[in-house]
C-alpha cells in the first residue's frame, strides 16, 4: 500500500514539516507542483474535476489562482531587501 502511494505520503509529511517549521515557501512549492500536474493532465481537481476541454475559462482561472498562490507563498519568506519584486 505505502509503496504505491509514496508521493502522496511524502507530500503529507512535507506539508506537516512546513507547518511545524513555518515554511511558507514549502506551501508555494506544493501549489506549483499542483499547477504543473493539472496543466499536464488537462484537468484540475479543485472542489470537483474541471476539464480544460469542457470549461476553458474556469480551468484557466483555477490554474491562474494556483500559480498566483505558488508565487505568493514562494516570495512570502523573503525580506524586501532580498527580493526586488516585493509586492506583499
Which secondary structure elements does this structure contain, and how are they paired or packed?
Blueprint: H1 6-21, H2 24-41, E1 43-45, E2 49-51, H3 56-75
Antiparallel strand pairs: 1-2
Helix pairs in contact: 1-2, 2-3
Describe the structure.
It is a single chain. Helix 1 runs antiparallel to helix 2 (24-41) and helix 2 (24-41) runs antiparallel to helix 3 (56-75). This protein has helices spanning 6-21, 24-41, 56-75; strands spanning 43-45, 49-51. The chain is built from three helices and two strands; from the N terminus they run H-H-E-E-H. The chain has a two-stranded antiparallel sheet with strand order 1-2. It is mainly α and 88 residues long. The mean pLDDT is 86. 61% of the residues lie in helices and 7% in strands.
The best one-word shape is flat
Low-confidence stretches: none
Strand order, main sheet: write it out.
Answer: 1-2
Average pLDDT works out at 86
Query: Total helix count?
Result: 3
Largest sheet: 2 strands, antiparallel
Percentage of residues assigned to helices: 55-70%
* Strands, total number: 2
Judged by helices, strands and strand pairing, the structural class is mainly alpha
Strand content: 5-15%
Computed over alpha carbons, the radius of gyration is: 15 Å
Series of H and E elements = HHEEH
Structure characteristics:
single chain; 88 residues; mainly alpha; two-stranded antiparallel sheet; 61% helix
